[in-house]
Amino acid sequence: MERYQVGILGGGPGGYVCALRAAQLGLSVVLVEGERLGGTCLNRGCIPTKALVKSADLWREMKRAEEFGLAAGEMSFNFNKVMERKDQVVDTLVSGVEQLMKAAGIRVVSGWGEFKEPGFIEATTEAGKEKIPVDNVVLATGSVPFRLPIPGANLPGVLTSDEILLETDLPQSIVIIGGGVIGLEFASIYHTFGVKVTVVEMLPTLLGNIDEEIPKRLTPILKKAGLELMTKTALKEIRRENNSFTVKVEDVKGAAKEITADKVLIAAGRKPNVRGIDIEGLELKTERGALVVNARMETNIKHVYAIGDVVGGIMLAHVASSEGMVVAENIAGHDVEMNYNAIPSAIFTHPEIATVGKTEQELKAAGVPYQVSKFPFSANGKALSLGETIGTVKILADDRGIIVGGAIMGPQASSLIQELVVAVAKGINAEELAHMVHAHPTLPEAVMEAAHGIGGKPLHLA
After folding, report:
1. Active-site residue among 303, 334, 435, 440?
2. What pTM value is reported for the model?
3. What is the mean predicted confidence (pLDDT) over 160-175?
4. Active-site annotation holds for 303
5. What is the pLDDT of residues 78-101, one digit of tens each?
6. What is the CATH architecture assignment of 345-452?
7. CATH topology for 4-145+271-331?
8. Which residues 6+ apart lie within 8 Å of 2 measured at CB?
9. Is 129 exposed, middle or buried (0-12, 13-18, 19+ CB in 10 A)?
10. Which of 130, 343, 371, 457 is 20 to 30 A removed from 357 (C-alpha atoms)?
11. What 3-state class would DSSP assign to 231?
12. Dihedral (C-alpha) 378, 379, 382, 388: value to the nearest 10 degrees?
């Protein structure tokens, strides 16, 4: 029986990237995956939703054609075709990951994996059970949608973020429970295609974990576009009545309201997936349902690592991938620690949102002296030519001018944030960034202008 140096449970962006990096470093690798390679991100998250966002963006642009001096004939869309394209994008990328694994010489076992004793992982496949000896175990089992313990939350037709991606017909109305990243991305997609959207959020604001100025700016934009947003509102009950649902909610003052909709999406977040891991028997340390690891991604058991959503924290695909590379490096004999100081986050609403580093409320709470500068896209030439002038670039710096955080709301925010990621990661002074030559006319000039505002003043802002 062949013994592998690395055994990985889960083939998502944490697991498969860990496998690839380990193989690059000359380690023998086996990976067990119960579904398709790519995990939630590729199959039921980041990628399929972005494919839908692209279709929604194009539809929004088509409806604005006259603003750009263009005339189009009768316009329509086929949502079934939109979903088919989403599936094609996913299939192409899954196939690509499969080819990468094959080329790297990684053994991929298609079956449900279990970890019951150190030194072995088990896989249940169509051929039966297989016990695979491994020197090091990497737990990369991801997360699953969180189901609220509310009457009716498990009714047939009440969808999770996984299930809604299987829908091929557009409802006339939908209630989305959760005003976080997942809820607002689906709200933006469905609203663009003409669905009446109501978002119910228990917290005082949408997107409660980012720089508080962004949701304050975003909320009136979404309301003006026609979305109904209910914050400080808790879900109490879901009832199915004929072909629709009645959603009972209650605001912070105790006032109850019932909303009728064709569909309900529960987008209240995700929780670590520990299926197949014998936590009690192995005495694995956990906290709030997540596996506890140190900066090297080691659990409390020697030669057992954990990465990605199963360790809680920042549940993002690129974080899982970075953690996977840290593990591979450490197994190969290096001494590497995971650094969470400059983790970018992108939210694909309209307008887009992206953040990195410290938020203003975090700096205030810590009593740390800081400087802030903002530059609106309405003063950026490229944004004006694109017809995308809503939004702003916000940069936070310490009292020396070192950039410690930033938030962008506006066109291509998900790409623009990377300049600030480098700045935060490398401790770049805002003055240095401001004096780096930026091509004209481009959107990154808005980042440069905001940098000028730290300890100074933007050039193109009266």
Report:
1. 440
2. 0.94
3. 93
4. no
5. 999 999 999 999 999 999 999 999
6. 2-Layer Sandwich (3.30)
7. FAD/NAD(P)-binding domain (3.50.50)
8. 28, 133
9. exposed
10. 457
11. coil
12. 0
